[in-house]
Amino acid sequence: MMTIEQQVNAANDRVMEILLKGRPVWIDVRPALEVIPGMTRTRILVPGPPLPVERLTTPIRTAVCGAAVHEKLATTSEEAWQMVLRGEITVEPAQDHQCGCAASMVVSASMPVMIAQDRVFGGRGYAPIHPGPNPKCLRWGFYDEDVERDLCWFRDHYGPALGRAVRAAGGIDLVTVLAKTAGMGDENHNRQPAASMYLALQVIPWMLDQEDSERDAMIRHFAANDRFFLHPMMAGVESLTATMKQVPLSTVLAGMGGNGVEFGIQLAGTGNRWYTAPAPVIKGTFLNPSYTEADLLGYLGDSCVTEVYGLGGMSAIAGPAYMRMTGSNIAEARDRTEKARAVSLGEHTFAPIPWDDFRGFPVGLDARKVVGYNILPISHGGSALKRGGQGGAGAAELPMECFKDALRGIYREALRLTPARM
Fold this sequence. Notes:
This protein is of the alpha+beta class. It has helices at 4-21, 32-35, 58-70, 77-86, 145-169, 174-180, 193-208, 215-223, 230-244, 320-325, 330-342, 367-373, 400-417; strands spanning 24-31, 43-46, 90-93, 112-118, 124-128, 172-173, 253-259, 262-267, 275-278, 283-286, 300-301, 344-347, 362-365, 378-384, 390-397.
């Protein structure tokens, strides 16, 4: 019989096989209610670990209530909030449903979500469509008539058109996108213009074939969005973690996100269980010189789930322009990636970084190494204002207490599975 250490190592080998050999492909866009496991008409998915609704931050509360009005569950935001407090509208973490919600974004029943499927191991993941460069959107905690009009346009035109195009294309292989754009300066969490433009080249020809009164407007919107790739990539990572979370005792990171109050991680070996600590503040560059750190919420959003796959802060060396934009430099970029390598179990080889001796980016962050070596990985992210909106962009250290608590969770799971040996 294997020891606990041998069981953990075997589990981690299995999870690394999923991370390194999995093939996430963007295959469709459908209404959330039709495809997301456990989705209901009165359920709204939010970023980060679970939080009592009374503690939801202002941007998330605004987005939840706006989504409820959008779904015609309520006629006003205040009515929607009272329904949330009474439990008539339920609020749950998106990542517990194989979905990722960036920043303050939420997902409700009729909203179109991108579907990614891992064509090797079969998992599926989901994410809403990136709203584009307009700062007034649900994604940043705003809701009014203009936002509602945009949500309806996405639901009735843009989402279905993207779905038809992607189906006609036979799916978009996300690994190919990363490989084709390697060395173009994307770290693919907070910066992805190259990946987004390459993706547009694959999808727009199929959109041109469609008969829709909004076709030209949709193509312009798509082509102008240099952050678009983030969201299908989030769905792609969720398609991998869906399988990873079925491997007991693995200490490899399988989920991460913040709700503005707490930051949480998930390990493959304990599935959807969250391990939380106070959310760190993302420090870097402010979008407005009048902002201060006191204006910011703690880490907010699920977009850092892309770092489970080795993107963002894990591959900071790949994105020197992001480092410069957020007040840092190439030496710090290299340091962030080397820290990630020190606590990871593998490396992707399909997207070598030219100015890093053509090495790939690290993947498979092991909680044992984080705690044992006392090395905290660095996550990239956009900072959210307490009142709603984006305050800036930068980076934050992941909280050590999350990893320590997660290892205690693995130990408890080991006790449960093999009590006779403990």
